[in-house]
Amino acid sequence: MLSDQLQSILKKEVQDFIYLNEQLDENKLILSQRELKSVPTTLIAHQITGRRKAKYKLPTWYATPQIVYPPSLNLEQSSSEATAEYKRQFLLRHISKRAKAIDLTGGFGIDTFFFSKIFDHVEYVERNEELVAITENNHHQLGATNISYHARSAEEMISGSTHWDFIYIDPSRRDEQAKKLVRLSDTQPNVVELQNALLEKSDHILVKTSPLLDIQAALRELKFVKTVTVLSVDNECKELLFFISKNSDSPPTIEAVNILLAKQNQYFEFTLEEEVLASVSFSDPLHFIYEPNASILKAGAFKSIAQKFPLTKLSKSTHLYTSSHLIENFPGRSFKVIKLQPDASDFANIPQRQINVTTRNYPLSPEEIKKKYKLKDGGDQFLIGCSGENKKFLILAAVIKQRP
């Protein structure tokens, strides 16, 4: 149950104020008065911030009345609706029996809510009692009636005799100051230590991690991984998903998925063995240049992508690809070459001073290139700095718009 303080923000006059003042400067509100409609302005300001952040990340929550938002960190760490919906569709394809599921690290309850659409019953587990109350209120407002709530730890929940058709766990880093997450054993709960206990409780487990995690290191730590999904939204890598199917004995499939909110999703699949055995040819830039999306680059499909389409690569360490004829539906950005200059020092006469600059394996950063040639961001064309096998290039190019 929500605390009295959180209950107070659900009063109609407070909710009306939050809805009508979405763009209000929260700091000015807090400084101007201590209370508003008998509610602390800090609490109201916090809800305004949460609602604004939810507008694009969680549009269903944003559009639903009487939603309570948690502290900013919980909101930032939660799945978006786009990634939660992808997980729902993934489970529909991979799990046939969908009676009971459990979310051991419930957080703000976004994934739990989407699981509740396909499972008969879902258990939500979260140690933070206030977050449990917030999530229960929100799920009720969203119409979910098949979720039970537990203010307990993941370890406590799996210590009993219950068996589930599906377990979901999204561990957080133990050290919040860590700049890079390398091992699953650095997370809380420690999935590596728990995996045997989890496998006793379910045949199907989905582990969500930060996109910073080293995929191959995780595969060495986890058992029975059937699928690894690298999940991006509009070319920003958001999550890694490790789907564990008990007693699976085949090499894992790697899925590179780029969810495009305004277009058809980009999907590429391969195995680590295929990547090792794939061959790739190299050449200088031809008429078209291709940049794989963020999921493919994170997944490490550097040779597989060239072999499938087929394309030649600019160099072993430059993850750009090229062809004489346009390859349709490439999972990433495609460019038509306008002008090619192997010697960067002679590229001073760029036709337009406003241009988008990007680099791959090039000695100068985009900012340094813009400063050197007095360029400004914007326009329809791109300047691509990159290295070939034997020389470096600055390429003037136009992006090719893909079909919706």
What name does the CATH topology of the largest domain carry?
Rossmann fold
Shape: globular
Give the fraction of residues assigned to helices.
Answer: 25-40%
* Uncertain spans: none
Strand order of the largest sheet: 5-4-3-6-9-11-10-12-13
Question: Would you identify the CATH H-level superfamily of the largest domain?
Answer: Vaccinia Virus protein VP39
Number of helices: 16
Count structural domains: 3
Task: Report the β-strand fraction as a percent range.
Answer: 25-35%
- Overall pLDDT confidence: 92
CATH class of the largest domain: Alpha Beta
Structural class: alpha/beta
User: Could you give the count of β-strands?
Assistant: 20
Major sheet: size, sense and barrel closure?
A: 9 strands, mixed
Q: What would you report as the Rg, rounded to the nearest angstrom?
A: 24 Å
In terms of quaternary structure, the protein is: single chain
CATH architecture of the largest domain: 3-Layer(aba) Sandwich
Characterize this entry briefly.
With 404 residues, the protein is an alpha/beta fold. It has helices at residues 4-8, 12-20, 26-32, 41-57, 59-63, 72-77, 81-94, 110-115, 129-141, 154-157, 191-201, 215-221, 272-277, 294-299, 304-308, 366-373; strands at residues 35-36, 39-40, 100-103, 121-125, 147-150, 166-169, 172-173, 187-188, 204-209, 225-233, 236-245, 253-259, 266-271, 288-292, 312-315, 318-323, 332-341, 356-360, 381-387, 392-400.
Task: Output the keywords.
404 residues; Arc Repressor Mutant, subunit A; 7-stranded mixed sheet; Rossmann fold; 9-stranded mixed sheet; alpha/beta
